[in-house]
Amino acid sequence: MLCVDDEPDVTYRIKRFVERHYPIDVWTAENGYTALGMMTQHTFDAVLLDISMPGMNGLEVTAEIIKHYPQTIVIIITASGDHEILSRSKGARFLIKPVSMNDIRVLIYQHFGLMAA
Questions:
Q1: Residue 108 lies in domain
Q2: How many CA atoms within 13 Å lie on the side-chain side of 82?
Q3: What pLDDT score was predicted for residue 35?
Q4: Least C-beta-crowded within 10 Å: which of 37, 38, 62, 101?
Q5: In Å, how far are 12, 16, 72, 97, 112 from 42, measured between CA atoms?
Q6: 76 within domain boundaries
Q7: What's the pTM value of the predicted model, to 2 decimals?
Q8: Which residues contact 99 (CB under 8 A, 6 or more apart)?
Q9: What pLDDT sits at residue 26?
């Protein structure tokens, strides 16, 4: 799994939680450009990314992932359920902020079929 957010504490919390409770390696990136670069080097089953990032926002990153890596699940973290954002995402799933570790637990169960250890 790749977790992308310009706030390092967010990616750290998610990485720490997931790797502690599941047999999933979590990679992190601080922006969309870095994330897309990592995707050329590694295969990720899922990308969890913030919508509001400097440079390339989450919708732009999502469009690139869906175009070049259609087998990858994209989950966008957003502060609102804005219908424009939802309609422009084409194939992504969403988590609405604030994201709890229980939200992450449900996400992993839904997409990977894994229960917490």
A1: 2-112
A2: 12
A3: 98
A4: 37
A5: 20, 20, 12, 28, 18
A6: yes
A7: 0.88
A8: 77
A9: 97
Question: What residues pair up with 94 in beta bridges, in sequence order?
Answer: 76
Q: Is the residue at 32 inside a domain?
A: yes
Q: Which residue has the tokens 């989950």?
A: 75
State what percent of residues in the chain have pLDDT above 90.
64
User: What one-letter code names the amino acid at 92?
Assistant: A
Separation between Cα atoms, residue 98 and residue 95, nearest integer Å: 8
Burial class (CB in 10 A: 0-12, 13-18, 19+), 20: exposed
Helix/strand/coil for 28: strand
**How confident is the model over 32-77, as pLDDT tens digits?**
999 999 999 999 999 999 988 999 998 899 999 999 999 999 998 8
What's the CATH code of the domain at 24? 3.40.50.2300
Helix pair angle (58-68, 32-41), 10° resolution: 20
